[in-house]
Amino acid sequence: MEDYFGQDIKRIRHAKTVVSYAERILPETTGANPNVVIAAAVLHDIGIKNAETTHGSSAAQFQELEGPPVARDILVKLGYDEPFIAEVCDIVGHHHHPATEETVNFDVLYDSDLLTNIQESGKHEDTSSSGTGKSMAGTFRTEAGKRIADSDTARH
Ligand SMILES: [Fe+2]
Q1: Which partner for 71 in 7, 43, 79, 147 could form a disulfide, CB atoms 3.0-4.6 Å apart?
Q2: Tens digits of residue pLDDT in 73-91
Q3: How far is the CA of 96 from the centre of ligand 1 (A)?
């Protein structure tokens, strides 16, 4: 992921923050597969680069379209098996758009990304471009995600 993003420090830092939130949510979330969740956390926004070069936009729909083939390439090179790759790519491919029924692995990634986006938007006082912020705090999908959001908000 770092090799792929190169000088794009902001995106590398974002992915690492999502991983660290996932590491907090995972131990409290029954049924989640840490390997799948961490791989998805590392790679969830990997489509941004091609979204910008091919579509001129980092909008969620383009990221979700461009992400899975890049994620698949990386995971194949790293020697992961097909079911693992398929699940991670599925999460990457709709990580901003939960389906009616979702896996626990999706839920952990979703909350980790949401917590990261809230943290980043608070830091930069800019919720307009990302479309995220405290108004999304009600949309958490795991108990641990909600609890972390509540405790982090209370600290500010
Ligand atoms: Fe993200």
Answers
A1: 43
A2: 999 999 999 999 999 999 9
A3: 9
Q: How far is the CA of 82 from the centre of ligand 1 (A)?
A: 24
Smallest CA-to-CA distance from 69 within 110, 77, 106 is with: 77
114 C-alpha vs ligand 1 centroid, how far in Å?
8
Q: How far is the CA of 113 from the centre of ligand 1 (A)?
A: 5
pLDDT in tens, 81-140: 999 999 999 999 999 999 999 999 999 999 999 999 999 998 655 444 444 444 555 689
CA of 4 to the centre of ligand 1 (A): 16
Give Cα separations from 3 to 47, 74, 89 (angstroms): 14, 10, 19
CATH topology classification for 2-155 = Hypothetical protein af1432 (1.10.3210)
Residues 93-131: b if buried by 16+ CB within 10 A, e if exposed? bbbbeeeeeebbbbbbbbbbbbbbbbbbbbeeeebeeee
Q: What is the mean pLDDT of the chain?
A: 91
